[in-house]
Amino acid sequence: MSAQRMTREYFPVSPKASIKIRPLAQAATLFVLALPLAGCGTGALWDKFTAKDDTFVEEPADKLYNEGLYLMNEKKDMKAANKKFEEVDRQHPYSDWARKSLLMSAYAAYQGGDYDGCIGAATRYVTLHPGSPDAAYAQYLIAASHYDQIPDISRDQGRTEKAVASLEEVVRKYPSSEYAVSAKAKIEGARDQLAGKEMNVGRYYMQKRDYTAAINRFKAVVTQYQTTRHVEEALFRLTEAYMAIGIVGEAQTAAAVLGHNFPDSRWYKDAYNLVKSGGLEPSENQGSWISRTFKKMGLG
What we know:
Elements: H1 15-34, H2 43-50, H3 61-73, H4 78-91, H5 96-111, H6 115-128, H7 135-147, H8 158-173, H9 178-207, H10 211-224, H11 231-244, H12 248-261, H13 266-277, H14 289-296
Helix pairs in contact: 3-4, 3-5, 4-5, 5-6, 6-7, 7-8, 7-9, 8-9, 9-10, 9-11, 10-11, 11-12, 11-13, 12-13
């Protein structure tokens, strides 16, 4: 929908009206001429009288919107573009252009690396226009902003958890949208990051010989992140930790499940050799939590 341009009509003053205002014009002239004679206290009054008129002038919504697009696409000036889009919302808050500008404001902020600004604008869009065809994209921008800020595994993963929650929201609310496919791929990437964090902490505990704490971390990977690339190493580390504390039945089960699901994995070879070094063979205990977990997921 195109915005209607506002126009101003200028009407000529009638001769009759000009006669009436002539005495007023003469009086104003005399007043201006008299100001220099009034003494040194007239400076502020003179400045006020001659000040430039800064009256606000409303601009057409489509003009502001297209200027924003130009600044964003041609000039690559995301901040300036954002100001234009925000101006549309400020001057024409109930127009269709305001709705479009709010989404473009979120996109410009995302492109400019202003993730908090993007999340704010996109969240407002979803709140105000939940039934819009573009609501799915706004929700995706929120998720992508969190995803792009995922830190490395040595740091707190709170942002990663927010990314997963936001991406799952896209899939849940808009399962048939084109953004659901991309969201699912990003979810796997974010979950891999969370699993990597658990592995990093687990390996730290292994170095400290705190095997119980290490087992808890590797267990989290096996139970929560089975589809990530870290599950193979997690099963080997469980074999290693259980062997270290003498719970050989669980060590045998971890090695057997690893071999059954990932027979070509280098981690299985290491687990097999570790169990063999203790005079044992990989053997799955069907009652083990490891076995039950993989059967529940259809992987055992």
